[in-house]
Structure formats: C-alpha cells, structure tokens
Amino acid sequence: MEVRPKKHLGQHFLHDEPTAQRIAEAIMLEPSGLVIEIGPGTGVLTKYLLPKIESFKAIEIDNESIAYLKIHFKNLELIEGDFLKLNLSDIIQDRTAIVGNFPYNISSQIFFKVLEHRNQVHSVVGMIQKEVAERIAEGPGTKVYGILSVLLQTYYDIEYLFTVHENVFTPPPKVKSGVIRLTRNQRSHLPCNEGLFIRIVKESFNQRRKMIRASLRKYMQHLPESRFSTERPEQLSVEDFIELCLDIEQIYNQKEISY
Ligand code: SAH
Q1: pLDDT single digits (tens) 59-118
Q2: Domain 7-184 homologous superfamily, CATH
Q3: pLDDT at residue 32 is higher than 90
Q4: 9 C-alpha to center of ligand 1: Å?
C-alpha cells in the first residue's frame, strides 16, 4: 500500500533513516511523560519512537496515512484529526513532549498552540522550514527575530539542532528544513500583564522598521522618557519587552487609564 503525498496537507515524506533517527533521539534525551507526534505520515519517525516510549500518541489528519499506520503499527495509539482543531487539554498531561516533521504550512500555528499549553508541554522537537526554525531560535539584533521568537523564547530555551537538505524528502520541498528543540524554561508567569505583553510584542513587530515610540504611540505617549522609545523591536530582548510592559502598566495604573 502506497500513500500519495498531498500538497495541501504539507506532505513531504522523509526517507533518510539517519535523519529520522536523529530527530527521534533529540526528543528522547530527557525522560518525560507522554510524547505526542504530530503528522506521523507513513511512520518514518514513529518506528523509532513507539518501541522506546512508554506513553506515546500520534495525531494524523490524512485518511490514507491513517490506513497505512493501522496496518504497520498495530500498537500505535492514533488520534485521527486536525491537531489545530482538537482540544489538546483532553489528551495532554504534565511533562508532555511534542515531536514531528511538521506540516510546514501550519508550523507557526502549531507553536502558538504549544504556547497555550506551555505549562504542560515541556519540550518540542520539530522539523520545519529552515527560515522559520532560524526565526524561532535567533535572538535580538538579527533580521529574522520576530513575534514568534519573542513569545516562544519567553517560555522556552531554544536550540537550532541541524539543517536537512530538501532531497531527503518525497517529494522534495522547495526550501531547506531545520530541526529545533524547545525546552521549557523556569519562567512560570510574567511579572506584567500577559495580554498587554503579547499586544506590545505583536504591535511593535507589525511595524518592525519603526521606532517603538511610533509603533506603540498609544502607550508611549505617556512614557516620553522611556529608554526604549528610539529602539526598534528587533533590538529588544524578552527581558526588555517585559520591562517595557511593566513601565506601561505602571504609568497606566498611575494615570488610571485602562489598557
Ligand atoms: N512524519 C512524516 C510525515 C511528514 S509530512 C515524515 O516525516 O515522513 C506532514 C504530516 O502531517 C503528513 O502526514 C500530514 O498528513 C500531516 N498533517 C498535515 N496537517 C495536519 C494537521 N492539521 N493535523 C495533523 N496532521 C497533519
């Protein structure tokens, strides 16, 4: 039985066993509870994970892949459906790890979903488009540093593990791939209002070439002396964004403005 790769599902099947093994090993380094694989496809990663991990589940959307997996992996606990739509709270446990050669068209959305469940998702190893992997892993002062980098780096330590060439996939994608690992850091909650923090990060990067005093004018008009006024968002570290958020919160409280 063959599974026809479907473009709309972001299917690029990995056929290089050493690469599959490296990805599987990267998630098994630290013992955790449940491991969830997103998009097992025909199981190139699954075959290394399933025998070694006591508590393992896979989520797959494609009917053909599901039929294939049921034949080849009799013991696999398979959840049939869309990772983005399913209620992860029903499945997830403390110290869950997430792994996969992610469908590249939804990789950012996968990471935003991880953020929502950050107190249970203890680590992620994912293969994604190389540029997105770099964006997530890079720090301030680089061109690719953006919203996802700041928000993920707030709660995770991020390592860019290795690059994967397009010719090890069927069909080959148009772009190179990168494997990254996220490991939950010590930060349990922010010292400032989290909703405000997210808005500040998003609104400043939405006009990334402008200075903070322009992109965040509605807040910064109350903070003319801020040391961040003439900075651009890509220069601000996570700690800087937290400090900026605290400054805004403080002045809003003083002036009794609501945000
Ligand atoms: N892990 C396999 C397949 C990677 S391709 C390999 O490395 O060869 C991406 C996989 O994600 C495909 O199997 C695709 O069907 C699946 N997929 C795509 N969108 C999905 C979604 N929303 N939820 C769950 N799986 C999805």
Answers
A1: 999 999 999 999 999 999 999 999 999 999 999 999 999 999 999 999 999 999 999 999
A2: Vaccinia Virus protein VP39 (3.40.50.150)
A3: no
A4: 7
Answer whether 228's CB lies under 8 Å from 240's CB: yes
CA distance 110 to 102: 8
| Model confidence pLDDT, tens digit, residues 130-187 | 999 999 999 999 989 999 999 999 999 999 999 999 999 999 999 999 999 999 999 9
Return the number of other C-beta atoms located less than 10 Å from residue 254's C-beta: 9
Cβ pair 133, 107 in contact under 8 A: no
Q: Whose CA is nearest to atom 15 of ligand 1?
A: 62
The ligand 1 site (C-beta within 6 Å) comprises 9-14, 38-41, 44-45, 59-62, 65, 82-84, 101, 103, 106
Residue 95, Cβ neighbours under 10 Å: how many? 16
CB neighbour list of residue 99: distance below 8 Å, 6 or more residues apart = 23, 24, 27, 35, 36, 37, 38, 45, 49, 124, 125, 126
Q: Give, in order, the Cα–Cα distances in Å from 96 to each of 63, 86, 136, 175.
A: 26, 16, 20, 29
Global pTM reads 0.94
Question: What does DSSP say about strands 96-101 and 35-38: parallel, antiparallel, or unpaired?
Answer: parallel
The pLDDT value recorded for residue 258 is 81
**Where in the chain are the domains?**
7-184, 194-255
Tokens of 238: 């996570």
Output DSSP code: residue 231: -
Question: Which overall architecture, per CATH, does domain 194-255 show?
Answer: Orthogonal Bundle (1.10)
C-alpha 149 to ligand 1 mean position (Å): 23
